[in-house]
Design brief:
Strand order of the largest sheet: 1-2
Number of helices: 28
Number of strands: 2
Helix content: 55-70%
Largest sheet: 2 strands, antiparallel
Strand content: under 5%
Oligomer: single chain
Shape: elongated
């Protein structure tokens, strides 16, 4: 995963030199054509007076006529005049001169014509006429397809016009034509990423407002429930001991959650709430809010959490859970301040409840406030050291600190990972985190062992198989084996967006673009946060643009091997 540029005009070249996309200015040239002195307008008296007699005959001095300029030379003069006007910030006059030059240039000089169109675009850019910039750059590219300055300038104009997809396509063309090394050093990739992010953010907001609630993968639901103490929802009551139908259904729902029969839960929650339960009303509201959140129905989720918080009959631990999960919804919507406000309220309501510290720490991790995240996770462990979730998050936070700030902590991170797998030997997420750290350290064989152990402990979690597939791709460059594993994972759980995204990435490497785009499209239907939607939206349009650019400009896509080679070159120790 660029500010405005200052365009300087080089006066040393009167022909076709371009500096930062603007035609170089030449010396000031007189407008019009050369004047020829002729004698046809003189009177006969004047002529006879000036004509030498036979006696005094002398040689007549001949006046040499200035040679007539060729069309190419005339065109160069008009272009030079345009450069002079540009230098004086007389941009309309500059455009007029460039247009005259284009008309004068012979058809055999398309590159010179393209330079003039590009200069017209530069002048239009100075005038803030971005539609004109797009038009003139497009005319330049019709004549000179891989004219980088024209593609760059058009990309910038498209961004100014909020036409992000067109801008992304042009920046993709620049990066692919110039190659990864030059594109990275020149800042093209950074600019492309910035525009992609703007597009992704815009599309994510639209998507989250328009999408219909949909139950995601069981893996996603289990992960959400694993991050809370379900004891706040437990009850020793039996259906037979209860009179109200809604209360009876609540006991059934708890059994469904225990069996991980998540598909039946949303409809039972709705039915139970319609029955006006007496004893478990706020428990049902809170669970309905949690399931609405994982289904990306943020409005319904907040309504249920608000009801729990505002109900004076709601007991303290349920209100804490409502604040925590309302905070998660705000975090999913990208509103970190409101999320932290809810987490803070939950902490203040009961400083001895571990859950608020865990969720606030996760919010801190998302904004890279590692110090506060680690502090909260240590407090959560102090309150309940048998809860595996804060342990895994703590080691993750320590690893991020080691990677970004304090490399000397890396040895301690691996010691903590070893202790953690001993203490939580039956928790799959512990081994999965260990595997991810090893993978990031490029210890692929050891990483695969950890992912396989996680898979053994929880066969239904297809993300572990996806991780193994990624290892096959990274360590062995074996895309076919990776594709087999990911297809198996997708067959086992067709609603896992993580698997779909990785499957799409494999298809990209195999240059199977329609299949890749279909995977990203399906994954977009399953995401539950704006951040996930923004990431996938950017990925989708980025791949679509790469496909179109490769076909239109006859260039090769950047492969993972190319990027890895370039990354190694850039990070190699310098002598």
């Amino acid at each position: 995963m660029v500010g405005s540029k200052l365009y300087n005009v080089d006066l040393t070249d009167t022909k076709t030199k371009i500096v930062l996309g603007v035609a170089a200015a030449g010396p000031a040239l007189a407008l019009g054509v050369a004047i020829y002195y002729m004698s046809s307008g003189e009177t006969s008296e004047e002529k006879s007076a000036e004509t030498p007699t036979e006696e005094t005959d002398a040689p007549v001095e001949k006046v040499e006529e200035e040679p007539e300029l060729t069309a190419l030379e005339q065109a160069d003069k008009r272009k030079g005049a345009g450069n002079a006007f540009f230098k004086k910030s007389e941009f309309d006059d500059a455009i007029a001169c460039y247009l005259e030059a284009i008309d004068l240039y012979p058809e055999a000089n398309p590159v010179e014509k393209s330079h003039c169109y590009q200069n017209m675009a530069a002048a239009s850019e100075k005038l803030g006429k971005y539609e004109e910039v797009v038009k003139y750059c497009s005319l330049a590219l019709d004549l000179n397809q891989k004219y980088i300055k024209a593609i760059q300038r058009r990309a910038t104009a498209y961004e100014k016009l909020n036409k992000y997809e067109s801008s992304i396509k042009d920046w993709t063309a620049v990066c692919l034509i110039e190659g990864p090394e030059k594109s990275m050093k020149a800042g093209y990739m950074a600019t492309s990423d910035r525009v992609l992010k703007a597009y992704g953010d815009e599309q994510a907001k639209k998507l989250m407002l328009s999408r219909k609630p949909r139950l995601p993968s069981h893996t996603v639901i289990k992960s959400a429930l694993d991050n809370i103490h379900m004891r706040d929802f437990h009850s020793t009551a039996t259906p037979e001991s209860l009179d109200n139908t809604g209360d009876k259904l609540y006991i059934e729902i708890l059994a469904d959650l225990e069996k991980r029969d998540y598909d039946v839960v949303p409809s039972k929650l709705d039915k139970a709430l319609k029955e006006e339960p007496v004893k478990f009303l706020n428990q049902l509201r809170c669970l309905r809010g949690i399931f609405s959140w994982v289904m990306a129905d943020h409005k319904t989720a907040i309504q249920n959490f608000d009801a729990v918080i505002m109900d004076p009959k709601s007991y303290m631990r349920l209100k804490i859970q409502a604040h925590i999960h309302r905070g998660e919804v705000y975090q999913a919507k990208g509103d970190k301040l409101r999320a932290l406000a809810d987490y803070n309220t939950a902490v203040q309501t009961d400083e001895d409840h571990p859950d608020p510290y865990l969720h606030r720490a996760q919010c801190y991790l998302s904004i890279e406030d590692l110090a506060n995240a680690i502090k909260d996770l240590e407090k959560c462990i102090e309150l309940d050291d048998e809860f595996p979730a804060p342990w895994t998050q703590l080691v993750y936070g320590q690893y991020q600190m080691a990677r970004t700030m304090t490399p000397s902590l890396l040895d301690q991170v691996f010691k903590n990972l070893g202790k953690m797998v001993e203490r939580f030997a039956d928790v799959s997420d512990v081994f999965a985190l260990y595997g991810q750290v090893l993978q990031d350290q490029r210890q692929f064989s050891a990483a695969e062992e950890k992912f396989l152990e996680a898979q053994r402990l929880e066969p239904g979690n297809v993300t572990y198989k996806a991780h193994v597939a990624t290892l096959k791709m990274m360590a062995e460059n074996n895309f076919d084996s990776a594709l087999v594993l990911l297809n198996e994972a997708h067959e086992a759980d067709s609603k896992c967006d993580f698997v779909l995204e990785n499957l799409g990435m494999i298809y990209i490497q195999k240059q199977m673009y329609p299949e890749a785009l279909e995977c990203f499209k399906k994954a977009l239907e399953l995401v539950k946060t704006e951040a996930e939607a923004a990431h996938l939206s950017a990925l989708y349009v980025g791949i679509q643009c790469q496909w179109e650019v490769c076909d239109e400009y006859n260039v090769k896509p950047v492969s993972m091997a190319d990027l890895q080679d370039f990354s190694q070159m850039m990070t190699a120790p310098q002598g």
